[in-house]
Automatic annotation (TrEMBL):
InterPro entries, sorted: XkdN-like (IPR014986), XkdN-like_sf (IPR038559)
Name recorded for this polypeptide: Phage XkdN-like protein
Listed Gene3D superfamilies: 3.30.2220.30
Cross-referenced Pfam families: Phage_TAC_5
């Protein structure tokens, strides 16, 4: 195989899935924490989530500025990356009294658990930056 062939789509691992313990609170029948399954997203999907979290706002002197809601952007990436538990499951959402995967994720996790999930999803998607650096990048 030539070096160039290593970059052909059929030769590249495109879907990476990992199991991570996001919280010790979600336990199976054996009493052990249940791992969450997360997978990577593509840059195309990343752009889609960034655009969905971006809006035009009026700036000074009536000029238009582009503003990205960093929290909305991040939660979209998280929801897209979580394979298990199924955040779109209506029964799971109902058990927490919410509608929608984004609201469910916010309701299910404590802040530290949420941060753990953010960190694992970032690592899986190749972000070598800290969350703060990523947020600063999104702003620009």
């Amino acid at each position: 195989m030539s070096d160039l062939q290593a970059f052909f789509a059929q030769n590249v691992q495109s879907d990476v899935t990992e199991e991570v313990i996001v919280s010790e609170r979600f336990k199976g029948p054996d009493g052990k924490p249940i791992p969450w399954k997360i997978h990577n997203i593509t840059e195309t999907e990343n752009e889609e989530y960034r655009k969905a979290a971006t809006k035009r706002v009026k700036g000074k002197n009536g000029s238009q500025q582009v503003e990205t809601d960093q929290n909305a952007y991040l939660i979209k990436i998280l929801v897209a990356s979580v394979v298990f538990p199924d955040l779109k499951n209506a029964e799971l959402q109902k058990s927490y009294g919410v509608m929608g995967a984004e609201d469910l994720l916010r309701k299910m996790l404590f802040p530290g658990e949420y941060a753990t999930l953010v960190q694992k999803v970032q690592e899986l998607n190749g972000f070598d930056q800290s969350l703060g650096d990523l947020m600063d990048e999104v702003k620009n």
